[in-house]
Amino acid sequence: MKINLNDKATAWQTKARRYADEYLQPHEVEAELNEGILPPEINARNKERAIELGFSAIDVPTSYGGHELSMVEQVAIWEQLGRVTNALSWCFSEPQRWMFEACTEEQIARYVLPMMSGKRKDCYAITESGSGSDVAGITATAHSIDDQYILNGEKWYVTSANLADFFWFHARLPDENDEALFLVDKRTDGIEMIANPPFSHTYAAHHPTFKFNNVRIPANQRVGKP
């Protein structure tokens, strides 16, 4: 199936191609020889330029200062960025539209919008050893006590956790016969990285395993709940 790009999609595609060619591809070999890691000043430059070009806001609603691009337009961008090896295009965060639909205004201000500006980076704590990424089988739990939730569970393959500063943590709610997502700051007490298995690629972003042991968070960090 052939998709003909309109002028807007073509303009974004061209912008992404130039960025990949000028800022990312020249560092592929260097990254390969250094476990995917580039010098801090190069990584900071690439991140800053990507944000300037608007790549961190392509799926953000216009009401929040984003570009709210169509899926075809976004694919045209990522097809170009994806030409580069070593995940060098992962140098910036990209908030997703669903986050603005699911989160409260307070959560958007504290977690989601700072991703767009490059001040925060997220990671997903969903996969488990038994259920994989099938959320119907997760065993991690969240119990509500007063104005807090207590989180327990073990999460595998938490991609980019070594570079992130907060988790999207998926858990069952035994007290409500339900499940929910929680925003959890990485430095919260009770969070421990228990493994960091090697993979057959050369990425700066790792895929470690984390244990959440009686992690206490405010109730307002449950996604969608004030």
How far do the termini sit from each other?
45 Å
Q: Please indicate the count of domains.
A: 2
Strand order of the largest sheet: 2-3-7-6
Q: List the helices and strands in order.
A: HHHHHHEEEEEEE
| Helix residue percentage | 25-40%
Shape descriptor reads globular
* Spans of at least 5 consecutive residues with low confidence: none
Q: Specify the structural class.
A: alpha+beta
CATH fold annotation of the largest domain:
Butyryl-Coa Dehydrogenase, subunit A, domain 1
Main sheet makeup: 4 strands, antiparallel
Question: Could you explain how this protein is built, in words?
Answer:
There is one protein chain. The protein has 226 residues and is α+β, with helices and mostly antiparallel strands. The protein has 2 domains: 7-116, Orthogonal Bundle (Butyryl-Coa Dehydrogenase, subunit A, domain 1), CATH 1.10.540.10; 122-221, Butyryl-CoA Dehydrogenase, subunit A, domain 2 (Beta Barrel). The chain contains 6 helices and 7 strands. The protein has helices at residues 7-24, 28-32, 40-53, 71-81, 97-102, 105-116; strands at residues 122-125, 141-145, 148-155, 166-173, 178-185, 191-195, 209-218. It has a 4-stranded antiparallel beta sheet with strand order 2-3-7-6, with no helix packed on it. Helix 1 (7-24) runs antiparallel to helix 3 (40-53). It is globular. The model has no long low-confidence stretch (mean pLDDT 96).
